[in-house]
Amino acid sequence: MSNETILKIDNLSVSLPSRADRAFAVEEVSFELYAGEILCIVGESGSGKSMASNAVMGLLPKPHVRPVNGRIMFENQDLLTVSDAEMQKIRGGRIGMIFQEPMTALNPVMKVEDQLDEVFVSHGKYSRAERKQRIIEMLRDVGLPDPEIIGRSYPFALSGGQRQRVMIAMALALEPSVLIADEPTTALDVTTQAQILGLVKDLQEKRGMGVIFITHDFGVVAEIADRVIVMQTGRIVEQGSAEQVLNSPKHPYTQKLIAAVPHLEAVHKSAKEPTPVISVKNLQKTYGGNSGFFGGKGRVVHATRDVNFEIYKGETLGLVGESGSGKSTVGRCLIRLHDADSGQILFDGKDINSLTLKEMMPVRRHIQMIFQDPYASLNPRRKIGDIIVEGPVIHGAVKSEAMKKAGELLELVGLDPSALKRYPHEFSGGQRQRIGIARALAMDPKLLIADEAVSALDVSVQAQVLELLDEIKERLHLSMLFVTHDLRVAAKICDRIAVMRLGEIVEYGETSKVFNNPQHPYTRALLDAVPGKAWEGPQLEEPISA
Amino acid sequence: MFSFLIHRLMILIPTFIGVTLAAFAFIRVIPGDPILVMAGERGITPERHAEMMTAFGFDKPIWEQYFSYIWQLLQGDLGTSIVTKQPVLEEFAALFPATIELSICALIVATVIGIPAGIIAAVKRGSFFDHSLMTLSLTGFSMPIFWWALLLIVFFSGFLGWTPVSGRISVMFYFDSVTGFMLIDSWLSGEEGAFKSALSHLILPSIALGTIPMAVFARQTRSAMLEILNEDFIKTARAKGLSNFRVIVVHAFRNALIPVITVIGLSVGVLLAGAILTETIFSWPGIGKWMVDSIFRRDYPVVQGGLILIAGIVMIINLTVDLCYGLIDPRIRNKR
After folding, report:
1. What is the pTM of this model?
2. Which of A93, A99, A109 sits opposite B236 (nearest CB)?
3. Percent of chain A with pLDDT over 70
4. Domains along the sequence of chain B with CATH
């Protein structure tokens, strides 16, 4: 890291349209980026961290959102005043950018090599033959095997990690001096994330670039940052070296955020009772394979193979694994949203896998689910009260009584009962997830299935929801199956853990044992890949304000 | 790609059987029988009526009539008109080019104006252009074809005197039909002014027939583009430093094409249906007018044959559209 400033943002303010909840997306923000450093901008959703970087790239959704004040100095010119043609040369040429969603960030109908080629063509670089050569080199540089084959592929044929590598190759094609990475690993599995973080750091060191790395994840910050900026509602509240911000944060907001990060050590004591609420035996489920309308064999995917586990009364079992490991399928089979091919699911001693749908109805109320996306899982056209009482009313409750109970449940999850008369869009993500929990509890379940229930939430909200779940579980003496890809979260809430890989449970046991003494190589790989695992965080006296 | 094609072709078989059934049943549901219509006001004796029914085979049970018709169809025989005594296929072949010529011109008018207008409206969302286009397209969409066609005639032919009122070409010109397409034939004839005359006769009918599809294309293009312009890969394309034109045309429009092509394919059926009205108003000697006349005459073989041929053409066009999906989107191509 040198002291040469390559990008300087000076007193930048970006205005929002008049209908927005605040006047500025970014307000009086000033910072510098030095050559050869990784600068992390951290903040929760709505903090303005992406807006600031979009302003640098000239990618703000104008005219509604536009810079109204300040300067962005890069290579002796103010990016806010250069012409559109100049800005086009800088984008992709001198400043590269990568985005969060590798699945949607590449054009689905263009071959990878054509998308890379476009960068050179539009910046008027190299002859045709040289370009072809460069594309192969670039794909090899970002660690893709068989660059020729990858080049000729369409994005849908690549995995998320491969696509993100292609994105990185594209952003770095013209050797820019600045790379802006907007949450580039958020959508990736933990092991892929570790690889991509390694790649970014590696390329940054090799080329001496300055990297602005936007993230909400303090683990990632601990893993790669040289310096850190913390943003809250459009303003910078703290900036300093990674060491200083992570281990002795000064601003109360930074302290609160860091305190909310779950630590990678199992804290849970298992106080289980000997009777299992549910026990799953040899659960098998395959997808595909059935022949099409006119023959032809589809691909067979073994979503779960020989899955066995029990959940005891009052305990939380964590089901962890990467995407495609089959963990969500297990959750769905338990409430028969999917039908398992074979195996037993014993609930209260009854095999619910063999019940007809009609026989399943009365059982279903005892097993309730909380979903991942709080924005998509509540019907936007119904009032909260109607959403919560719908289940109980179908199962024979009187509506007025169910409504009264719904009010009590909202209080239990920390919301005002007046919410009953409002619509989902009036609530924030965290509040909606609380409503989702109240809806599940309205059925008086014995078992809750939480499918990535906190993955879409900001870290401080995540901490609150986890605490709420834990508290409710204790108070109502519930059992819970907690499906997650996030090992930190699993460590915080689960009594026991089952690690899934390719449809199989490879390790199963008490959380502390699995985390402190992992037996299976895959579990070890997963734990190793958790970003910032070496960072233990400061010892703060202040508790998390829920 | 090959299995994709086979799959689509196989689906056509049950569709085609459905079409023959519908065509066969449709004309028989209309009250009145062909013999009585042929006899007209002169009337016919019951004996002669029965005789003629037997001669045409209309006295047989209906399923027997259907199966013998299907048997004929399989041998490529669409039957003979009971009024003109001409083979249906021959009449169709003589008239169809006129309809196709009109439909293609209408489709060109609709596409060339509708799609770019939709793209511009999406890119300049919320602008004056966008609002005007949406209002205009709603008007175009709601206007009955015959009313709109009459307005065009009154204004452009009557008031301004710019375009002819009806027909395919001025009576001043005469030449033998080579392709059946008046634009091409007039060009080939080498007669001075013939091509211009043919073209001027096409203008108003094409606009009249093309207006509804144009409005639909513009709206569909706009909404598809708006959706695509919000996609992440558009942001990636901008971040690469591509020009606005390239981002919009190469990245956004190609992805927006699938829904647009779908409505273009579907609108072919609408065009052929609309051609019936347009051809009647502009005295355009195409299959639309021919079908209407045949229905009034209860000319069973012509109506059946005409319906099946038209349905067949619509099906082939939609098959082509399906194949285009595969060309545009590699994900569909690889699915099967």
Report:
1. 0.79
2. A99
3. 95
4. 88-296 (1.10.3720.10)
